[in-house]
Every structure is written in structure tokens, then in C-alpha cells.
């Protein structure tokens, strides 16, 4: 009977879901809009989100996915996760993803959104099959080669540039990646990258063996009591990420409920090209008794550092650069200059709706960290060893999910975060979160919910809500009140602030997606006093407005239009910024073409417009439109057959407010910049 039911749903599902995205065409723009819709920090968002795209590109097995893994994809509510696991317990393993239509609380729109992120493994494929055979049979194996180049000549390549700052390598950026994986079973892969300006060389004294960056991992899962084992590069996230958090992006977004809680996801392979977020060594999770698990890890990695010789020839680290760029003598002098040993353990208990654990983490540097003193960093970490201890407690009962974590930096400060997700009805969901991070709390791999870029010197309360009128129409919003007890960068006094957002989503059919969004943020900032060396503190207020439409005119033609507008006011002075974009996507046989024409005009950097751009498979492009000009790009995908695909991307920006672009060694003469990117993927 089970097989008959599965066949019925499969036949019906093929008809209902015939126009779903293929698995490799996850809608990254929708993920960005929903989960991390506002980007205001001066961070490399492309690296952060590329890591997220890497993780989401490998679908979960519906029959083995845990609650935390389902939470990680940020699509399902707590009630839907509970409904899915209850259905699986009552009726046995899924035989097809189309069986999701039989799960209570799963409507067609939810299933369509979820489909690219899940799969059902054929259990017969792993019975009596060797690891090599399972790798050969897995359909998600791939190898990619990528080439990128800025066509204009940057200052770093010119002969008149100082020798120490002149780039040693070619302007070509080259990267390659291989991965073979089966959800809940194994994963093996490597990545290698040469940034533009870097050399491909063999230099044992500088610890470079070919490409400037090389990463490798091998993972086994669910082998008896051994639940997870990773050798090579990995990342870890436990609790709410106060102590041990992976590089999963940050921020508050249009999805105001599921993004509030961090997933207690454990150890994951690290496959990103970002060179600063990986741990390198080994990580494992063991089932030591029924419902009781131990997770441990050890990492020994070399980190970029600015190391200065101090008093009595004692060296110290004044900064830890995270750009991963090693193009010139100046940048190479910081390459892998200090060792970082990072180890820790988590003893955690899981039963029914409870998930609790205690944690320890220690990080040791070869040199003492002594940042250059400034008013705002008097409580920054100083020393060569940082130790943290803490614990977390999560509990779900009926339609409420509680989560919390507390941590302590030994001989320093504390950090706390606690919250709840509550489904009051099938229409209304609420979230609440409180956090308090001392100014002397130090955690280098933290990824907890925060207003700032670090979990330090902050206290705040967040409320989020989502009201669903019907499957077509919902409204979401949040309010966040925060305060900083000590000075911050560009804020030389204790300060307070607030942020709120309201978003209206309307999807009358799967062919049309519309949303409108408004957001306000108010924070203090230093302002200079004329003819004085002092600062005064003023309150700045920023508004962001978004209008977005996504219409599938036909199965082969899709149009997207977006208007973004912002204003920033401080000291009775207001500046503004806007970006207007028109995208077109069409497919002809084996070709798929995406193009954009964008106009932007911003008065200053405070009104820069972060805008998602379609890119080659598994690449993430989120540039900040700043200044005034026109931005155009075209992306062409050609599928030679089911195994081999090619991508070509050309982007062109023309500014109307400048005669040079960029600054320092990255500057180019003229008001035009052009970018070329080519990628090949082989699946086997």
C-alpha cells in the first residue's frame, strides 16, 4: 500500500511541480531577499553568502534529515518541521519527494520552495556497495573550473607603482572545485584558488604549493556510533553560535521568524573559497550512550597576520587580515605569519523536544595579539590564549520552540542569548529574542544574533512576526531595540538605537512574485566639529524602500523589476540613493540567458545599494552600487548535455561622477570597469 500511495503522489506531483527549479538552479536571489535582505556592514558579503550557497547546493535526504538540518534551510516553520518528522515516524521512510503532498501543513507553495533543497536517496544503492561504488553512483558529483578577470588595468599592475605594492601575478583569477557527496553518508572534495594578482608557484618557504589557497575535506556519516567524521577543512556551529559558529552569513531579513534562531547543526565540510573561515584538522561526533553525544574538534591552521617586533624582540600581532589577498610584497609579508590552534568539545543530550549541551573551546596563537590602541577597542582581546566555556538549552513543546545559550570568556566577560518561536495559529507566527554581550566577551568564531559584526558590547531585544492571510498573501515585520554600553568604531560614547522593518509579500500564482518593503534604522555616529579636534555624537537615521516584481511571462521568459531607494539623515542633513533594475531571463533549447540593465545614483557611501546579481553556478555576486552610473551584465548558460555545462558572464559599469574607479592598488583609470567570468562544470 505504501508503494501504491507513493506512486500516486509521484504521478500527481510530476504534473503539479513540473515547472520547479532544477536542483542546481536554487533561487539564490530569493534566499538573499528572504534571509538577509539588508546589508549595511562593511563586510565581504559575497564570501559569506557563497558559503551558504555551497551548503544549500547539497540537498538533504528527507529520510535522515534531523530537525536542526531542516531548520538550517530556513524555509519550514516549527510546526511544519514537527509535522514532517511525525509523518516520517508514522508512515516510514519517504519513497519520493512528492509524498510531501501528504504531510499535514504542507501546501503546494511550501513544497515548491522546499523541492530544490531535499531529495530521497535510493536505499538499495548503498546496500553492500563500497564507498567507491557509492561515489560512482551518486548523481551530485561535479568538477568545476572558473576563470575571472577585470579587463581594465589596476594600479597594482603598473610599473610606476611602488615595488612593495606591485602585484606579482597575472590579472587572472582562477579557481577549481571538485565534490562528491551523498547526504547522510559521505562527502569528499577539494577547492583551489588563485586571486587576481597572485602567483601560481611552488614556494616551500612561504608555504605555497601551486595555488595560493587549497582546501580539502573527507567526511563519513552515520557509521554505527560514529555519527560524523571530517578530516581536512571544516566548520562547526553549536547552540546559538555564541562560542562556536560557522561562516553562515548574518543579518536580519524579510523572513522574520526562522532567521531568529541559529541551527545546532554541528560539524560541516568547509568548501568555500573564503580563506579566513575554515578550521583545518579533524572533527567528530560520537554517540556515547542512548540520546547522549560527544562532539570534538582540533584545528591547526596558519593565519594571515600583521606581526610586529616589539620590546626586547617580542613579536605581537596588531591585526589579523581576512581578505585572503596575497598579491604584493606587502600582502605576502602577512601571509600565514601566525599559527592558530583551535580545539573544543561539546557534550550534548537529545531526546524528544529537548536538545541541551555543555561546551568548551580554546584558541591559541603563536604570537600575542596586541591591537593598535584606540578609544573604542580598549576591551578588545589581548593575549595569545582565549578560553570559553558555556552551554545551551533548546526545547520544543507543542507549537512553541525555546532556545538559549550562555558563554563565558575565562577571566573576562559573559554573553547570553535566549528566545522563542511561537505559532499562535495557522496564520500568525511570533519570534522573540533577548541578547546581552559584555564588552570584554571574546569569541573569534561566533555567529550569534547581533546588530554589530561581533558578539561584543551589545544588549538588545528583538520581536518578529508573520501573518499569513492565505497562501498568496502575507505580511512580516520586526522591531529591534539595542544599546551599546561602551564605545564603538565611529561612535566614541555609549549609545542606543533601533531598527524596524515591514514587508508585504503577494504571490497570486507560482508565475508571479511581488513584494514591498520598508525599513528604518537609527544609530549614533561621531560627527566632526568645525575647526576642532573633537567629535560630537549625533543620531543618524536611515530608511530603505524596496519594490520588487518577478513575473514568468511564459515557460521560457521571465522578467524581474526592482526599485531600491534609501535616505540617510544626520545633523539636519539628508542624503539619498537609488537603484532601478530590469532583468530578463529567457531560454532557447540548450541556452539560458539572463541580462540586466540598472541605473543607480547615490549621494554618498551611506546610501550605497547592495544588489544581488545572477552569477555562474555556485558563485555569489552582491556588489554595492555606489555613486552614479549604469550597470549592465549578461549571463549565458549552455548545457552541452546532461553532464557538461558552460557559463559566460560579462558585466560593464559606466560611472558618470568620476574619472577613476577604486582606490590605491585596486584603482583603474577612467570611468568604466568591465568584468569577465567563464565557468565549466562536469557532472558524473
Can you describe this structure?
The protein is globular and about 75 Å long. Strand 33 (660-661) and strand 34 form a beta hairpin. It has a 24-stranded antiparallel barrel. Strands 1-2 form a two-stranded parallel sheet. Strands 6-7 form a two-stranded antiparallel sheet. Helices cover 11% and strands 49% of the residues. Among the domains are: 1-35 and 59-130, no CATH class; 556-684, no CATH class. The chain is built from eight helices and 35 strands. The protein is mainly beta and 684 residues long. This is Helix-hairpin-helix motif-containing protein. It holds the Pfam family HHH_3.
Radius of gyration: 25 Å
Unreliable runs, pLDDT <50, ≥5 residues? 1-24
What's the main sheet like? 24 strands, antiparallel, barrel
Strand percentage lies at: over 45%
Write down the overall geometry.
Answer: globular
State the end-to-end CA separation: 35 Å
As an assembly, this protein is single chain
Helical residues, percent = 10-25%
The tally of helices reads 8
Q: What is the count of β-strands?
A: 35
Mean pLDDT, to the nearest integer, reads 88
Class from helix and strand fractions: mainly beta
Amino acid at each position: 500500500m505504501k508503494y501504491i500511495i507513493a506512486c500516486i503522489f509521484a504521478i500527481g506531483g510530476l504534473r503539479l511541480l513540473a515547472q520547479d527549479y532544477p536542483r542546481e538552479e536554487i533561487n539564490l536571489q530569493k534566499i538573499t531577499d528572504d534571509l538577509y535582505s539588508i546589508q549595511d556592514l562593511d563586510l565581504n558579503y559575497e564570501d559569506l553568502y557563497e558559503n551558504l550557497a555551497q551548503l544549500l547546493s547539497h540537498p538533504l535526504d528527507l529520510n535522515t534529515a534531523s530537525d536542526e538540518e531542516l531548520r538550517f534551510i530556513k524555509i519550514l516553520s516549527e510546526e511544519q518541521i514537527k509535522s514532517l518528522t511525525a509523518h516520517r515516524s508514522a508512515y516510514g521512510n519517504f519513497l519520493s519527494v512528492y509524498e510531501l503532498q501528504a504531510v499535514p501543513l504542507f501546501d503546494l507553495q511550501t513544497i515548491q520552495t522546499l523541492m530544490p533543497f531535499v531529495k530521497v536517496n535510493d536505499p538499495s544503492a548503498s546496500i553492500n556497495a563500497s564507498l567507491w561504488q557509492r561515489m560512482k553512483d551518486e548523481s551530485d558529483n561535479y568538477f568545476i573550473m572558473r576563470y575571472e578577470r577585470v579587463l581594465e588595468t589596476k594600479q597594482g599592475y603598473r610599473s610606476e607603482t611602488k615595488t612593495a605594492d606591485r602585484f606579482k601575478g597575472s590579472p587572472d583569477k582562477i579557481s577549481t572545485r571538485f565534490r562528491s557527496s551523498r547526504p547522510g553518508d559521505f562527502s569528499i572534495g577539494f577547492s583551489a584558488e588563485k586571486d587576481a594578482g597572485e602567483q601560481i608557484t611552488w614556494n616551500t618557504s612561504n608555504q605555497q604549493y601551486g595555488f595560493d589557497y587549497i582546501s580539502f575535506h573527507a567526511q563519513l556519516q552515520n557509521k554505527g556510533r560514529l555519527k560524523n567524521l571530517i578530516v581536512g577543512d571544516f566548520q562547526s556551529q553549536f547552540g546559538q553560535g555564541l562560542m562556536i559558529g560557522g561562516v553562515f552569513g548574518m543579518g536580519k531579513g524579510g523572513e522574520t521568524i526562522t532567521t531568529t534562531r541559529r541551527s545546532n547543526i554541528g560539524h560541516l565540510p568547509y568548501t568555500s573559497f573564503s580563506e579566513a573561515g575554515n578550521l583545518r584538522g579533524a572533527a567528530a561526533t560520537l554517540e556515547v550512550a542512548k540520546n547522549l553525544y560527544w562532539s570534538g574538534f582540533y584545528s591547526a591552521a596558519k593565519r594571515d597576520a600583521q606581526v610586529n617586533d616589539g620590546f626586547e624582540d617580542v613579536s605581537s600581532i596588531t591585526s589579523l587580515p581576512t581578505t585572503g589577498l596575497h598579491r604584493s610584497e606587502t600582502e605576502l609579508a602577512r601571509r600565514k605569519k601566525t599559527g592558530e590552534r583551535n580545539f573544543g568539545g561539546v557534550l550534548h543530550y537529545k531526546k524528544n523536544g529537548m536538545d541541551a549541551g555543555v561546551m568548551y573551546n580554546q584558541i591559541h596563537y603563536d604570537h600575542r595579539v596586541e591591537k593598535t590602541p584606540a578609544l573604542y577597542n580598549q576591551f578588545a582581546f589581548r593575549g595569545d590564549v582565549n578560553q570559553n566555556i558555556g552551554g545551551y538549552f533548546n526545547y520544543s513543546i507543542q507549537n512553541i520552540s525555546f532556545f538559549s545559550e550562555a558563554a563565558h570568556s575565562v577571566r573576562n566577560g559573559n554573553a547570553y542569548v535566549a528566545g522563542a518561536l511561537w505559532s499562535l495559529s495557522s496564520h500568525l507566527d511570533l519570534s522573540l529574542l533577548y541578547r546581552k554581550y559584555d564588552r570584554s566577551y571574546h569569541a573569534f568564531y561566533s555567529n550569534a544574533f547581533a546588530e554589530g559584526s561581533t558578539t561584543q558590547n551589545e544588549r538588545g531585544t528583538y520581536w518578529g512576526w508573520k501573518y499569513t492571510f492565505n497562501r498568496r498573501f502575507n505580511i512580516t515585520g520586526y522591531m529591534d531595540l539595542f544599546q551599546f554600553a561602551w564605545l564603538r568604531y565611529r561612535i566614541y560614547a555609549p549609545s542606543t538605537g533601533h531598527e524596524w522593518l515591514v514587508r508585504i509579500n503577494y504571490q497570486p500564482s507560482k508565475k508571479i512574485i511581488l513584494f514591498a518593503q520598508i525599513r528604518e534604522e537609527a544609530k549614533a555616529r561621531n560627527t566632526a566639529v568645525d575647526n576642532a579636534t573633537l567629535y560630537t555624537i549625533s543620531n543618524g537615521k536611515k530608511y530603505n524602500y524596496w519594490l520588487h516584481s518577478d513575473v514568468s511571462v511564459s515557460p521560457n521568459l521571465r522578467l524581474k523589476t526592482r526599485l531600491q531607494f534609501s535616505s540617510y539623515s544626520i545633523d539636519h542633513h539628508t542624503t539619498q540613493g537609488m537603484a532601478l533594475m530590469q532583468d530578463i531571463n529567457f531560454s532557447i533549447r540548450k541556452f539560458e540567458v539572463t541580462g540586466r540593465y540598472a541605473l543607480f545614483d547615490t549621494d554618498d557611501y551611506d546610501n550605497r545599494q547592495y544588489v544581488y546579481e545572477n552569477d555562474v553556478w555556485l558563485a555569489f555576486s552582491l556588489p554595492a552600487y555606489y555613486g552614479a552610473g549604469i550597470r549592465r551584465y549578461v549571463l549565458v548558460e549552455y548545457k552541452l548535455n546532461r553532464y557538461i555545462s558552460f557559463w559566460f558572464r560579462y558585466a560593464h559599469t559606466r560611472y558618470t561622477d568620476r574619472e577613476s574607479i577604486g582606490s590605491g592598488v585596486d584603482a583603474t583609470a577612467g570611468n568604466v570597469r568591465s568584468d569577465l567570468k567563464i565557468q565549466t562544470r562536469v557532472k558524473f
